[in-house]
Design a protein that fits this description.
heterodimer; A: mainly alpha; MetI-like fold; 2 domains; 15 helices; disordered N terminus; B: mainly alpha; two-stranded antiparallel ribbon; 70% helix
Chain lengths: 296, 326
């Protein structure tokens, strides 16, 4: 018991080992000033959504709103009230694609990453190199072949045209594989000796340890499905019932200058979900390795 | 009648033993491979779903556009085989490509290393904060990447009349007498592009590093302190960086990809095409041929050249990262 407390105490102290106050202050001043510049778009987007029309067009643009109003949001509701497909349908599509795609991608990519990182099977090196190399090929020229494949598979104008390719994104596999590489082999060996199957090891040992990795991957996947939805959906989807919120918002923006107010409101609304997910996942990224109970 | 004896030209046993052993060795190699594969059938089961999708939607299109780079293809008629002529044209005839190549290399050489190091530095600084505060700061630093095209606010900053922030500031302080056309002047365009890219740089690798730092075993630091590590820089070099090698490799690939394939900012902020091609990059060149001139074969050749450049840079970076912590 005493020993354990001692260890805990030392762990707490170790956070502050090797730190000098002077450098601390200097580094955090740097951090603060950079953070100020990075925060500009966030502040701008939020205050823009509440600006009355005359403040939006003032030049040079003002950062903060002077007379906040909700008019942009009420205008937005008016625009939607006479839309042909109920707005809730677009919302459903967006959430359905984002959630299914993200969950699916995290599971499929992690399942493939585990053998590549930890099981030395014939072909593992070659497959992994293929993944890394494909990350460096400009996606622009693969659009035409991609469209052809999707149409051969009869996926045009279905959710699958967006979901299936997103399950096999390269970034996720690479990220998960790199994190899984750090898991000590001894831990997996021990589990194998205890009679656990590879599937069990993957799900109950590997996945909890690499929690920081898949929490991060959730952000990447969600972000790409959330905002790039319009890009892919207007390529592969033409029936109005299957389109996403992002696409509709793009249509509002194409209404021109008159719509500038509602567009500002829309920009803010579209950021709420990614930012919420971002904050939730980021504050859950905490150390997992030391709690895995392995001392080598 | 006696049947004539036909002597085979090569006696059946000539060189037999050697050939037989070679054959046997090959057979046993294949046998071993199969046994290995059967032993790892779980591994194959786990990777199958991903690699089926990956093969269909990534490998196949990439291979196809590699093939297309040897053809002339306008997306309406079937592709015509032209051999290496796309590549020859690219390096011998296409002057604009050489400008794009120069711009891209300059851009990548500056933004690549700086943004890579910035990603790590800021992830490392933030890492010591408590989780809630860390999440908030991460959000703020990541903000430029989270919200689509926010980089367009740089347009108002560098607006060309005297009301633009940069111009009005410089005029007020008497540095310049008349407004500068920031986004139209070939002297400044590439510099502004680099500045905006650096502002956008805390993205994917930054988040990967934050997660990676949490994955470093904390007892290593304790052990290090006992072994005589004196300050945070030594700790960084001898413990943190080597422990994070997988994430560092990941970040390197991502930053290389981003640095070499800049196009969107150039197109939407500076304009397309830019004045004197001052902000023309390899990918904008590719977009030009792909979606304006409908020369998909030529565009694919450009993509292949870019791909080769990134591969070489990646090999070089791997060598450099191998030296970390020595």
């Amino acid at each position: 018991m005493n020993n354990r407390m001692n260890l805990n105490l030392r762990l707490k102290l170790s956070k502050r080992l090797n730190r000098s106050w002077a450098v601390d202050i200097l580094l955090f001043l740097l951090l603060g000033s950079v953070a100020f510049f990075m925060a500009i778009p966030l502040i701008f987007t939020i205050s823009n959504a509440f600006k009355p029309i005359d403040e939006i067009f003032v030049f040079p643009p003002r950062m903060l709103v002077r007379h906040p109003t909700l008019k942009n949001f009420t205008d937005l509701i008016n625009i939607f009230s006479d839309s042909w497909v109920p707005f809730s349908r677009y919302v459903f599509n967006t959430f359905f694609i984002a959630i299914t795609g993200t969950v699916g991608h995290v599971i499929v990519a992690s399942a493939a990453a585990y053998p590549l990182a930890k099981i030395n099977f014939p072909g593992s090196k070659m497959l992994f190199n293929l993944v890394v190399m494909s990350l460096m090929f400009t996606a622009y020229v693969t659009q035409v072949p991609n469209y052809m494949t999707i149409s051969w598979l009869n996926l045009i104008n279905t959710y699958w045209a967006i979901l299936l390719p997103s399950l096999g994104m390269t970034l996720g596999l690479y990220l998960m594989k790199q994190f899984m590489e750090q898991i000590p082999d001894a831990l997996l060996e021990a589990a194998k000796i205890d009679g656990a199957s590879e599937y069990r090891i993957f799900w109950t040992i590997v996945m909890p340890i690499v929690k920081p990795a898949w929490l991060t991957l959730i952000i990447f996947s969600l972000q790409s499905l959330w905002t790039n939805g319009s890009v892919t959906s207007h390529k592969y989807i033409y029936s109005e019932q299957l389109k996403t919120v992002d696409y509709v918002f793009g249509q509002i923006a194409s209404g021109g200058l008159v719509r500038t107010g509602p567009v500002a409101a829309v920009t803010l609304l579209m950021m709420i979900v990614p930012i919420t997910v971002f904050i939730v996942t980021q504050s859950n990224i905490i150390q997992t390795m030391s709690t895995s109970g392995l001392k080598e | 009648m006696k049947q004539p004896v036909i002597h085979p030209i090569v006696p059946p046993n000539a060189g037999g033993p050697a050939a037989n052993t070679r054959l046997r060795a090959l057979r046993s190699r294949i046998g071993r491979l199969f046994r290995e594969m059967r032993k790892h059938k779980h591994a194959y089961a786990l990777i199958t779903p991903y690699f089926l999708i990956f093969g269909t939607f990534t490998v196949f299109p990439v291979l196809m556009s590699l093939c297309l780079s040897f053809t002339s293809f306008n997306m309406l008629e079937p592709p015509k085989w032209v051999g290496w002529s796309n590549y020859a044209r690219l390096f011998v005839q296409d002057d604009v490509f050489l400008i794009a190549l120069k711009n891209t290399l300059l851009f990548a050489l500056i933004t690549g290393p700086i943004s890579y190091m910035a990603c790590f530095l800021f992830a490392w600084l933030i890492n010591e904060l408590p989780p809630k505060l860390r999440a908030l700061l991460t959000l703020i630093l990541y903000a430029p990447s989270i919200s689509g095209n926010t980089y367009l606010i740089w347009q108002t900053l560098f607006a060309s009349d005297s009301y633009g922030y940069a111009n009005s500031f410089l005029i007020k302080w008497g540095v310049i007498m008349e407004p500068i056309q920031w986004l139209q002047d070939p002297r400044f365009v590439l510099g502004i592009l680099i500045l905006v890219q650096l502002w956008l740089s805390l993205g994917t690798s930054f988040l990967a590093f934050i997660a990676g730092l949490q994955n470093v075993d904390r007892t290593l630091y304790e052990a290090g302190a006992i072994d005589g590590i004196r300050n945070r820089w030594q700790e960084l070099w001898f413990i943190t960086l080597p422990a994070m090698r997988p994430q560092l490799l990941f970040g390197a690939v991502i930053q290389i990809t981003l640095a070499f394939s800049v196009a969107e900012i150039s197109i939407y902020m500076i304009g397309f095409p830019s004045v004197d091609y001052a902000a023309h990059t390899i990918v904008t060149h590719l977009v030009d041929y792909g979606s304006i001139r409908y020369e998909m074969g030529y565009a694919s050749a450009i993509a292949t050249v870019l791909f080769t450049m990134m591969l070489c840079t990646n090999l070089l970076t791997r060598k450099l990262l191998g030296k970390v912590g020595e």
